[in-house]
Structure formats: structure tokens, C-alpha cells
Amino acid sequence: MEEFMKTFANWCTGLLQNIISALLIYFIGKWIINRIMSLLSRYNYFGKKDPTVSQYFLNVVKGLLYALLIIAIINALGVSTASVIAVLTSASVAIGLAVQGALSNLAAGIMLMLLRPFSVGDYVSAGGAEGAVKDLNVFYTTLNTLDNKVITVPNSTLMSSNVVNYSKEATRRVDLDFYCAKGTDINQVRSIMQECMKKNGMVLPDPAPFAELIGGDDHMMTFEVRAWCKGTQYWDLYVALNREITIALADAGILSPAVRVVQN
User: Is the pLDDT of residue 45 over 60?
Assistant: First the structure.
């Protein structure tokens, strides 16, 4: 019994030492990783060239460093690395199924980096989500919506869906529809719309602004306005033309379909 208690005490002492060593390795390792990531962020070459590559590079390095830290902690706890590998090998099928989605996202993240359908800061619509790209991670991409919500989209979803990048090109076209009562002077309406676009400084002269009758029915006529602008000014011009043309038509006495129907 005395021999057993002595052996048990030695085992407890050794376990406690291993736990203390593992905790020390964790805290020291985490501090070192934070320092390394801070230095890489500060002097990262990619950050000066391409924010997307920079963030992806930093995420990969951080993941590898934490993987090494976990291995070091396992060793400090007295668990043989060979034993861990043996267990992982025997459970490879189950693990393979469990990490299938993660590996798919990892592969998709690499492909997104190579193909570059979007970059950090671009405004995109993909996988049922829409927002500005905040971060391209190893396994997922983070988007910020216009009302400041954060959406996390798996990379595999982005790779398997259509991606609409609203920021890729330097210019965009604003398309607006306006409805006037049947019988309205078409040339007068076109002239008012063209004058509003001519006065707005955000409208680019080339391609030329467009204002034309595109359809209608027994009660109304549909006019469409198309104006090109810088990509960053899209929503500003969208709101401005909506307001300015609506006010100009009202000031000129152009009736809406609802008003014309009432008068009939």
C-alpha cells in the first residue's frame, strides 16, 4: 500500500508539472504569436501592395503558429505525438467526414485568392449575402452590410455561386424609371430629364446620358433614365436624380398616372 501511495504521489506530481508546463507554454506561446503577428502586420510587404493578399497571408501564418502551439502543449502534457498520429490515422475516415467542409472551404479560399473575383473593400453580392468585403479568411469571407451587420460566408459557397462585384469597374450606370400620365408631351418630359442630368455634376458626359419613352399602357407612359457616374458616387447620384427629376416634372405640371386617372 505504501508503495502504491508513493507511486500515485509521483504520478500526481508529474501530472501537475506537465499541466504547469502546458499552461506556461500556452501563455508564453500566445504572447509570442501575438508579437509575431503584430510585427508582420506592421512590416507586411503585401499590405502595401494588396490588402486582400495581406489579410489572407496573416490568417494562414496565424493558423500555422497556433497549430505548432497546440502540438507543443500536447507534448508538454506527456502525450506522445506518435500516439496522437496513430489515433488520428485510425480515425481518419470519421475525421475526413468531419473536416470535409473545412477542407472544402480551405481549397475554395485558395482559389479565391488565385482567381480574385473580389478584393477587400469591394462591394459584392454572392451566396445570398450582400455587403463590403471586410476580410478574406482561410475558411470564410466576412462581409459588412450597409446597415453595419457582419455576414460570414463560407468560401465554398462563394466559389459555387455567382459573384456580383459592384466595385470592380471604375464607373457604374444608374437606371431609373419614371411614370407619367397618358398623353403627356413626350419631348417635354425627355427635355426635362436631360436638363436635370446635364446640371448634375456627378453625371459623366461619356457615355451620353439617356432619357426615353420605353413603354406604357392605357393610363401611363414609362420613361427610363440612364446616367453613368463614378462607382463611388452611384448611390449619391441615384438619390439625387430621383429627387431632382421628380421635382422638375412636378414644377412643369407633368401629371402622374394616378392624377390623370382621377381627372378622367
Answer: no
